[in-house]
Design brief:
79 residues; 41% helix
């Protein structure tokens, strides 16, 4: 399984990513040195939304699609 997810950072900004282990990736974003630089300086982050896909290609395509959306459209997924 592959996951596309949206995190809300402490500064209220949104981060979109994909992973094959959502729980592990969330822990990395919040505490590990291997988390994304963007979220390292905006901790803590909260998982606000996720979708599941069968292949990495599907997940990456969806991630790219969501990343091009404006903030309001992203927020509409989970608020």
């Amino acid at each position: 399984m592959q996951y596309v997810y949206i995190l809300e950072c402490v500064d209220s900004s949104l981060y979109v990513g994909c992973t094959n282990d959502l729980e592990k990736r969330l822990m990395q974003h919040n505490g590990a040195k291997s988390g994304a630089h963007y979220t390292k300086i905006r901790r803590p982050v909260v998982l606000r939304y996720s979708e599941t896909y069968g292949t990495l290609t599907e997940a990456r395509n969806r991630e790219a699609e969501i990343k091009h959306w404006d903030r309001e459209k992203k927020l509409a997924l989970f608020k």
